[in-house]
Amino acid sequence: MQTPPSDDDWLAAAARLAARGRPLSRPNPAVGCLIVSNGRVAGRGWTREGGRPHAEAMALDQAGDAAKGADIYVTLEPCAHLSDRGPACADLLAAAGPARVIVGVEDPDPRTAGAGIARLRAAGIEVRSLACKAGEDTLAGYLARARLGRPHVTLKLAMSLDGCIALADGTSRWITGPGARAHVHARRARADAILVGGGTWRKDQPKLDVRLPGLEARSPRRVVLSRDTAPHGVEAVCTPDAIAALEGVQYLYVEGGAQTAAAFLTADLVDRIEVYRAPIVIGDGLRAIAGMDIGDLSETHGRWQAVEQAQLGSDAFTAYRRTR
């Protein structure tokens, strides 16, 4: 006999829906919602482009009367504050009369922070607040802004087996194959902004756009780490810490070069490293990361956890999460 899905399973499914909203839901976080009645999905939703409708409103519209007495799974605490763009989701859920609301992450926004859950409980609805890692992952940019005051930073590295990003003369086309390069473009489409160092910008003049058919319009804002005046259509930050001032950016994708990678790692501003490793050996080439002032190997252990792996043609992809 098949074991029915647990609350954690349903929340993980809601988190997969939430991923559809990134990054188009900005400035709102990408939230997912599932309404489950008698073990079957009656409604589902995720935050739409521009932030409205919210996930809960979309799911409730689908479920209709089936929401009454149902279990509702939502990755982020339902909003409780008034808005001229629509009613508070906590009020919508309370009016729908579900038996339970299961929340993956409590909202750090002071306008809601606990008030959404309190409002549901005041309406006689059972509320469970679970520590949902999948939900936190889909809200990583929103939570980084709220908790750390800066965007969530992903550092992308495409390298040979021996950790080189180019030949000694700087030749780098192509380290990885077409599958890995398409994967990078899909990652770019999920970012609000993409950053490279000033040296990389001046040497390579990278387009930093999305060149996947149908996703060209999803190209992120372009940012250069440089003290020089930014070129037209490009923003500049003079230090890694200055990314905090990138208004409206929840997800920042850092692509290089080696000095920039080292600067962000040294400042402990990298939340995720995505490594594309090609099955080639270069030898005396340019390193993926420049020198870092590390006094003892003990400082390097326990900082990164592998969270995702994939084979992309002949290239291997591995993602690591910063453990804090």
UniProtKB/TrEMBL annotation:
Cofactor, how bound (note): Binds 1 zinc ion.
Keyword annotations of the record: Hydrolase, Metal-binding, Multifunctional enzyme, NADP, Oxidoreductase, Riboflavin biosynthesis, Zinc
GO molecular function term, any single one: metal ion binding
Binding-site positions, Zn(2+): H54, C79, C89
UniProt xrefs under InterPro entries: CMP_dCMP_dom, Cytidine_deaminase-like, DHFR-like_dom_sf, Eubact_RibD, RibDG_C, Riboflavin_Biosynth_HTPR
Top-level taxon in the UniProt lineage: Bacteria
Start and end residues of each CMP/dCMP-type deaminase domain: 5-128
EC identifiers of the protein: 3.5.4.26, 1.1.1.193
Biological processes per GO annotation: riboflavin biosynthetic process
Necessary cofactors: Zn(2+)
Active site residues per record: E56 (proton donor)
A Pfam family assignment: RibD_C
Residues that hold substrate according to the record: S172, R188, L208, R211, E255
Catalytic activities: 2,5-diamino-6-hydroxy-4-(5-phosphoribosylamino)-pyrimidine + H2O + H(+) = 5-amino-6-(5-phospho-D-ribosylamino)uracil + NH4(+); 5-amino-6-(5-phospho-D-ribitylamino)uracil + NADP(+) = 5-amino-6-(5-phospho-D-ribosylamino)uracil + NADPH + H(+)
UniProt cross-references to CDD domains, sorted A to Z: Riboflavin_deaminase-reductase
Pathways involved: Cofactor biosynthesis; riboflavin biosynthesis; 5-amino-6-(D-ribitylamino)uracil from GTP: step 2/4; Cofactor biosynthesis; riboflavin biosynthesis; 5-amino-6-(D-ribitylamino)uracil from GTP: step 3/4
Binding site for NADP(+): A158, W174, T200, D204, G257, A258, Q259, T260, A261, A262, A263
Role noted for this protein: Converts 2,5-diamino-6-(ribosylamino)-4(3h)-pyrimidinone 5'-phosphate into 5-amino-6-(ribosylamino)-2,4(1h,3h)-pyrimidinedione 5'-phosphate.
Family: In the N-terminal section; belongs to the cytidine and deoxycytidylate deaminase family. In the C-terminal section; belongs to the HTP reductase family.
Name of the protein described by the UniProt record: Riboflavin biosynthesis protein RibD
Species this protein is from: Tsuneonella dongtanensis
This protein's encoding gene: ribD
